[in-house]
Amino acid sequence: MVGVDRASLRCEARSPAQRLLLAHRRALLRRAGPAVLLVLLLAGASPAHAAFPGRNGRLIYSLGNGGRGGRAAIVVSGPAGGRRRALTAGETLDISPRWAPRGGRLAFTRITSDDTCRIVIINARGHHLRTLPAAARCDSSPAWSPDGRRLVFERQRPDGSGGHDLWISSANGHHQRRLTRPQGDDRDPSWSVRNQIVFWRVTSTGAQIDVITPGAREPRDLSPTPGDYHPDWSPDGRRLAFARLSADGTSLLFVMGADGRHRRDLGPVPSDRPTDPHFSPNGRCLVFTAYTEARSGIGVLALDPRRLHRFAFPAAQAQTPDWQPRPGPRAHASHPRI
Asked: Which pLDDT score is estimated for 9?
């Protein structure tokens, strides 16, 4: 079941014509009842980067069986789940898609049957697929630089530890260099318009959020206590959204300033483990993976200066979403304060 997405109606700046359409939609919602405040896109896979400023475009995510040896396709749809179309065939495990800054290309991770991971780039229509060269068994979780000329990604270490370091390359996979040294397991990088790269690092004490600039030698820890993971930059690079692991194994969504201060819990959502939050290009919403029991889906949460709009959702099997930036006004001025 797919319902009307009440949260997505608050994700856009509105013209008079849009306000008239919104009033009509609200009337439909009142007749339909309050059950569905958010749409979960019907779909399964595993976890990954920055939202780039612009108008809100389409959602992209991974759809299929994301377990070991599973298969999943990269799927694009409208913000409320309509007009869904697969961009890859789903013959391998394709996960963690990320839009380029202008929304015309995307990069994702492809895992084959022998557990080899490669970064793949295609255009927004699913054409001109290109697999980037790799010097390791597993390169994954790509994120674009603000100018679209470079990528930052995870590379699995060859020492058999299963740990990852962050590497940077050109967008065609050449000129590769290491960004972080083997001090933990570094995951899910996100590159801001202010040229800062945030990621989460697993150490012997737990998970923490670190930030580094491309030319720096050491990252800076933004987590006062362990448990923070899956960070993402806001379109203006001034805020971070992230998930925090609770003692009971569930998680909560938070936002904070770029310096790690002013942390705010976004409140309970009907998901045991909401993870992988990403800002919309205009900064008004978060899209994230919502896990409940053995299922996963894509959630859209509207951020509002007065209240946070909660939601209910049908069962789904989808994950690792990202929101397409489309050319338009920069999002800075329209951001709600949170």
From this structure: 44
